[in-house]
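protein under study:
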Amino acid sequence: MANDPYKSESLDECKQLCDYPMYIRGKIAQIEGELDKALYWFENALALSPQNAIYLSRIGQVNFLLGNHEKAAEILLKSVEKDSTHVCGINLQAQECLTSLNNLNQSPEVLKFMAELFQKKKDFSSAARAYEQVIKSNCNVFNDIGDEQKFQLEPDNVEALTNLGLLYYQEGKENNAFEMFGRALSYDPTDGNAILAAGSIIQTNGDFDVALSKYRVAAERCDYNGSLWNNIGMCFFGKGKQVAAISCLKKAYYLCPLDWKISYNLGLVHQSIKQYVSAYHFFSAAVNLNPTYGMGYAALAAVLSHLGDQANARKAYEKAIQLDAENPQIFYNYAIFEMKQKNVENAIKLAKMCETALASSHPHYKVCKFSVQNVKTVHWCSKQNILCNLKIA
């Protein structure tokens, strides 16, 4: 057949009429990292089968890998238009293209979408930059429109400011976050999300009365909010009003029974009034809902030791250290536990580990340096220590 000139010519013509081998050669080239060759073969396959959405999506992928993000987004959009059955996969590819763009001079709607994508990827700094651009673009529009249009734009600005504040808060930039919440409240003093977020920062700094005044306004707008009632309850707890705290936390628990923070806080309040059985139930619920939180097991261990179950208390402390080996509070309370069990060597070892963890720990761990011999002081600090880790939703 190869020696027959007529048959050989027909074979060459047939090779140019079948798109699938070209597609396979393109896939092989892409796997081997030869992106230019892959693009060549995918484009040839598409030329023979212009309605094939898969070939278009492959061309979009290769363009994305080559750094042609805008072109990739356009091609992937065409692929969606041709065949919507591959929307899920193409949507993810389009998101990758969009978030890879360095140019943030987009419309506010696109910027908000980009910010949400960055948040899903845990890229909070890029999400914050996107929201900053939203606010800047809205401010520029504010200068050129009438009062009625400004009123229509305000909700978008409030949402962007609140989201930006939350991103700052997640990054540990508390002052910047509080500023954003304040600006959001200047647009809408009754915005529930901004009030709740600002109140949480005020509450964290120990100003419970001011935080409660903020929450009172929020409660009028969003009474059925578990996080709100959780925070109100912990404000009362900070003021030493345990009965009011339990009442508010029970309402939060009713509204959000699967929120582990609420169960954990209920355990803290019951532990503070020496209702150890109730505290045990709530701490157990908290660690079942969030089995990766080390302080939950440490709190459970403290309650178990009060209930006389020393064996399980020790297991709970070991689990807490396994989950959070850099938390000095856990070593601190475990050292006290071992001292009370007359295991002096273990107590000294844990005290040294606490000192090491304390030297490199986050400032929010309010643990006093102590001497292992001073058992009374250690025991008193232990109680304060287990209560100071209030988790605000």
Summary: Residues 147-170 form the longest helix (24 residues).
